[in-house]
Every structure is written in structure tokens, then in C-alpha cells.
Amino acid sequence: MTDPRVLPDLLAERAESCGEAELVVFEGDNGAESWSYAETAARAAARAGALAEAGVGRGDRVALMLTNRPELLEVILGCLWLGAVAVPVNVASRGVQLQHILSNCGARLMVIEAGLAECLSTLEMDALAVERIWMLDIGAGHPLAVPFPPPGDATTPAKLTAGDTAAIVYTSGTTGPSKGVCCPHAQIWWWGKNTADILGLTEGERLYTVLPLFHVNALNTFYQALITRSTVIFGRRFSASGFWPAVARHRATVTYLLGAMVPILLSRPESPADRDHWVRLALGPGVPQRFHQPFAERFGFALIEGYGSTETNFVIAATPETTGDGTMGRVRPGFSARVVDDHDEQVPPGTAGELILRADEPFAFASGYFGMAEKTVEAWRNLWFHTGDRVVQEPSGAFRFVDRMKDAIRRRGENISSFEVEQVLLSHPGIGSVAAFPVRSEMAEDEVMVAVIAAPGVVLDPVELIDFCRPRLPYFAIPRYIETVEALPVTENGKVRKYVLTERGVTQATWDREAAGIPVR
Fold first, then answer.
1. Residue-wise pLDDT tens digits, 263-277
2. DSSP string, 325-342
3. For the chain, what percentages of helix, strand and coil (3-state, to nearest 5) are there?
4. What backbone phi and psi angles, to 5 degrees, belong to 296?
């Protein structure tokens, strides 16, 4: 008996029923590559064979550091077909963060592009479980690396259940290292099903995304296409000048945008290309209210607001009629949401509190944090997932986001652990103490700012600190603002009061990396 919530079962069924219909298109620097439903299933089976030949078995973790290219999806599907666990890693991960991710997940095999391999030079490989590295584009450039192997002999799909882990996706830590979210097969399926329902997808849609496949959003878009018998087109990267031509070229009907992408597109000169497309709707969570109407008027379609997290699902969503009203929308069928105080007691409508969530269907949420039992219990206490986000439920039932309660920073759609930024800077011999915190940017998201206390007798050079951070942090986590201070504001028990720093923000004494023209890539 098959289960559509399990990727091998769903993909095998679609290969039989949809055959040569187009499922996946990958944009490339030298043209596009297209896979049919049947070919996608065949690639998954053959890549599973290559993984098995390399000694990967059911439950083994495979770490992947690849940009949006066919091999990334092929290996992910091969893992899921085999019953192994895919661990897609942000390609910007570096230093202590990457060391922690590989150590925590215990991956025995790593797949990486040669262009990203420099990040391996800072790792303590002897402390990791990695036995072999598959490297794309060139031959072995590392003692453990071998060229990316060809497909193997096709294997039969593993017999899996909806609760088996499909992927471990690392999300920002709050007061500690990044946490690996264990995503069951059913959770990813429900993400696709819910998003397809929210967007009103029907058979034959063309879904265009430039978001990276190492994030849940883009992987979810693949599932939307698979579930609705549609086509997904993966762009290589976001380009403000190239976005609309690509959307038109691929005849996309739906697209996907994150908060910062919207003001960037609006900042471009108006052009006939603004409406020379077939897009009828876009998913645009986290877009500030003030951008919704100008965007719809200029480009001809609405941005759907909503709320979800790697640990949960697409649990709250607006409709085309209500999106842009300043709320995230209402809770979706199959989920429950409450706003509670510090004791998990529900607060009245109109009162700010923490958003907690629960799913009706089994395995529609993540099953916990890999290797972090205490963090799992803390987050899922009282049988509700605690988001760490402060929201208000309006009398109408809609939820409005207020701010993050967690010690995290969000920039350009990426969650940044202030803890990890601080750990890197604290490893600099000239820094005695540091606090990393968010300040608002002109792009409606956060910028990373750090307040640093120099070690005795040291005069800190901001440019040198940026050079120090570059090989040790993802580019998007490298601070934009640096300010040397004499002391940090602390509570009675010595914890830094970061909200004080955030409220104070940029001052005349703050050094601005962008104003200084210092690149981070």
C-alpha cells in the first residue's frame, strides 16, 4: 500500500500517471535543463543507487552544499528514495557554524561544488564523521574528495512511513548554535499541499522561484508542483534586472518572493516588462504592509502574506482579498494557534504574546531538533510548538506580527544567530566582549550590528575585523555596523540587554561597512 505523503511513493505514482509531462526546469548559465516526471523518478532511483554503492544506507545523513543546480535536487531525491536523510546546508555557511552543522548531523558523505570548497579549509575534518566528499566541477581538490560520480544502478524505493525523517534543515540558533530541524516526509508533503491550497494551484501551473533549494521554501515549491501535476522552474539566483525577463520567458503563473526582494524590484525604473508576464499571484511572506499596494498596482498581482517556520508548516495565511492589511492572515484548517503569556496562559485578543502552534495531522510538524533533546522539549513544551515570535490576534481572528522574542537576526531572508556572530568575534584576540543585535534597514529587514569592547591596550580596526569575519561567517552574517564601546548594558544577573542596543541603533560613533565600500563576497 502506497502513501502519497512519502516521497518515493508519490514520485513513482506521478512518473506513471504524468509520464513525459514536464516537472522540473533548471536555469543555467548556458541554457535550461528540463526533466519530465518519468525522468525525475528515474534520476532519483539511479542516484539512490550511486549513494548505496558509496555505502550510504537508510537513516544515514548526506550533507549538501550546492547552489540551485540539477545535482542538488537529484541527490536530495536520491536520499529520500533510498531512505537516507538529506542535509541541505546554506552555501554561505563557514567556520564554526559549518563545523557545528557537520558535527551535529554526523554526515558520512558530503556533496559540494568546487567553487565552494574553500570553506573546507577552516574545518577540523578529523573531528567530523565525513568519510568521503563528492565534488562537482573538478576532480579531487581535498584529501577526502572524489569527482561527483555518475548515476548508479536504479534501486527500488525504500519502504518508508510518513514519520520517517526526510531532511534535516538547520535554522538559526537563539542563544546557542544552529539547530537541525528533523523534517518527516509527511511534514514536507503537508507544506506542499497547504501552500498549493493557499495559492489556489491547479494542474498545469508553472511555478518560478529563485530561492535556494537548501531552504524549505524552494523545496516546498517542488512539492507543490509534484502534488498538483505542475512544473517548477528553478532560477540560479535573484537578479533585479533579470527577474521579470525570466518570469516571462518561462511563462510562469506563480512566483515566490521574500521581503527584501520586493522593495528591490520596486526600486527599479518602471518598464513595459513590469506587466509583460503571465503571473497571477505570488507568495510573499514578510513583506511590509506599505509595499503591497504599490507592488500590486505596478506589477499586476497580489503578494500573499502568511506565517510558517521550518519546525512547523504553512499554518497562517491571508487570502488575495485580505493580503496587505497588515496581518499575516488567519490560522489554516488542520492547525491550532494561540497567543500566550510567559506561563502559556492564553491572552485576550488585542494583547501581545508568544505565538504557539499545534497540528491536527500526525507528522505535519517537525519531529524535533537532531541530537538536541533538551532544546526539543523546551520548544515543544505542553504539547505546543513555541515559536519565539510575539504576535497579536486581532478581534477578527487574524494574527499580526509584532517582533521576534528570540535572540536572532533576519537579513535578506536568512536567519542569523547572534550567538554564532559573537563566537566568531570573541575568537579575535583584540576583542574582550561583544554583543550582536539587529537594527532596521532601508530594505525593511534587519542589518547586523555589533557593539564591541576592545581588549586592554588594543585599538580595533573595523576593516580588519571584517577581514577576520569573512572566512568564518556566512557573508550575510558579517556585520554591517561596528561600534567600539566602553561597556555593554546588562541586567542584574549580567545578561546583555540587547533590546537597549537595538533601540539605540546606529549612532554618530558607528562605523558602517557599506558606507566604507567594504565588500563581503
1. 889 989 999 999 999
2. SSS-BEEPTTEEEEEE-T
3. 30, 25, 45
4. -65, -40
- Report whether 259 contacts 286 (CB < 8 A): yes
Where are the CATH 3.40.50.12780 domain residues in the chain?
7-17+29-153+162-183
The amino acid sitting at 81 is W
For 516, list phi and psi in degrees, rounded to 5.
-80, -5
Q: How far apart are CA 414 and CA 194, in angstroms?
A: 23
CATH of 7-17+29-153+162-183 among 3.40.190.10, 3.90.180.10, 3.40.1130.10, 3.40.50.12780: 3.40.50.12780
Phi-psi map region of 267: left, alpha, beta (phi>0 left; psi -120 to 50 alpha): alpha
In three-state secondary structure terms, 109 is strand
- Residue range(s) occupied by CATH 3.30.300.30 in the chain: 408-512
Q: What is the pLDDT of residue 286?
A: 81
The amino acid at residue 65 is: M
Render 70-88 in DSSP notation, one character per residue: HHHHHHHHHHHHHT-EEEE
Q: What per-residue confidence (pLDDT) applies to 389?
A: 87
User: How much is the pLDDT for 176?
Assistant: 67
Q: Cα 471 to chain center, whole Å?
A: 21
Q: Are 411 and 403 in contact (CB under 8 A)?
A: no
Q: Phi/psi of residue 94, each to 5°? A: -145, 165
Q: Which pLDDT belongs to residue 406?
A: 67
Domain 408-512 coded CATH 3.30.300.30: yes
Q: What 8-state DSSP symbol labels residue 119?
A: G
Q: What pLDDT is attached to residue 140? A: 61
Phi then psi for 377, rounded to 5 degrees? Answer: -60, -40
Question: Which H or E element spans position 98?
Answer: helix 95-105
Give the integer Cα–Cα distance in Å for 127 and 130: 9
Four-residue CA torsion sign, 223, 228, 233, 235: negative
Residue 130: C-alpha distances to residues 103, 108, 120, 124, 371 (Å): 9, 4, 12, 11, 17
| Residue 498 burial by Cβ neighbours in a 10 Å radius (0-12, 13-18, 19+) | middle
Query: CA 123, 124, 127, 132 torsion: positive or negative?
Result: positive
Domain 327-404 has CATH 3.10.450.50: no
Residue 61's Cβ-count burial label (10 Å; 0-12, 13-18, 19+) is: buried
Question: Residue 127 carries which DSSP code?
Answer: G
In this prediction, the residues of the chain whose per-residue pLDDT falls under 70 are: 139-140, 172-176, 403, 406-408, 443-444, 491-495
> Which part of the chain is CATH 2.30.38.10?
327-404
Q: How many CA atoms lie within 13 A of 251 on its CB side?
A: 4
Give the integer Cα–Cα distance in Å for 116 and 471.
12
